[in-house]
Amino acid sequence: LTNAASEFASYPGVHSDASVKEFLGRFPLPTILSALQSEAHVPEFETALVSCLERIFRTKYGTSLIPQYMSFVRVGLQANSQMVRCLACKAVSYLLENVLLVIIYPLLVNCLLDGNEPVAAASMDAIQNLSRSPKGISIIFPNLATHCSSVARIRVLALIVKLFSVSRSLATVVCKSNLLGLFEAEVNNTNDMLMTLSALELLYELAESPHGTEFLLRSTLLQLLTNVIGNTSLDPTLRSRAIMISGRLLSSVKTGLLTISRRLQDTDECETAFEALGQIGDSIQGAVL
């Protein structure tokens, strides 16, 4: 099984449904899943089976089999093995319309919050795909909340950025769900510089999205950014990033513009302030200001 799985996974091309059926005819899916659960402690064996299953689930035929093995997906999302959890997250991403996702989603969030980077990325992609359906939106937002771990909070913020960029309607749901309040809390909390800087970096990405300015200006983030810019006791890196974000948002807000202008006298931040003013001037309203 190990050799066959490795050979199947290393095939350079895209597997067809026919090739998947042929492989599963020799090694039925229950046999592979059972072997994975019983021998997951053997690294090479686990790698071969996980890679093989991932190639299987990518095909239309393989995806059609997943609903029959949702019990495995649930167990996989809670597995100790990061590779198995990552595989389970990817399997979920193919099941956007499956009603069982209501049960699976909390486990998917757990993978986002406490999995390693590949697991978190896979779960984030699955949640983003899930958000594209009306049923998915109703599942996601009531369950998304703050968590104590700084890594978990950053991952939640990164997920918000991804969800925000999917569509204007989804951005509206994000705002109505008060998820931008998570950004406000992190920007307002300057006790943890690295956490605040990470939040500002993600906020910068959010400001770049097609609907960024429209929705962010409705929140208190603009005032919070202004406070950061004007607080000379903060690290210049934080103030510079706040200036750049404000430069994207402040095309019609004179208060923020004046705050940035004051930083022109600071040699450390002068260049960043000029760049921000240049971005404001790119718009007609900004040029008038």
User: Uncertain segments of ≥5 residues (pLDDT<50)?
Assistant: 283-289
**Would you tell me the overall average pLDDT?**
79
How far is the N terminus from the C terminus? Answer: 69 Å
Number of helices: 20
Helix content: over 70%
Secondary structure layout:
Blueprint: H1 2-9, H2 17-26, H3 29-38, H4 43-58, H5 60-65, H6 70-77, H7 82-93, H8 101-114, H9 117-130, H10 134-143, H11 150-164, H12 168-176, H13 180-188, H14 193-208, H15 212-216, H16 221-230, H17 236-249, H18 254-262, H19 270-281, H20 284-288
Describe the overall structure.
- It comes from Chloranthus japonicus.
- One of its GO terms (cellular component) is cytosol.
- InterPro entries: ARM-like, ARM-type_fold, PSMD5.
- This is ARM repeat superfamily protein.
- The chain is 73% helix and 0% strand.
- The chain has a domain at 166-289.
- The chain has 289 residues and is mainly alpha-helical.
Task: Name some characteristics of this structure.
289 residues; mainly alpha; 20 helices; 0% strand; elongated; disordered C terminus
Quick rundown:
The protein has helices at 2-9, 17-26, 29-38, 43-58, 60-65, 70-77, 82-93, 101-114, 117-130, 134-143, 150-164, 168-176, 180-188, 193-208, 212-216, 221-230, 236-249, 254-262, 270-281, 284-288. It is mostly helical.
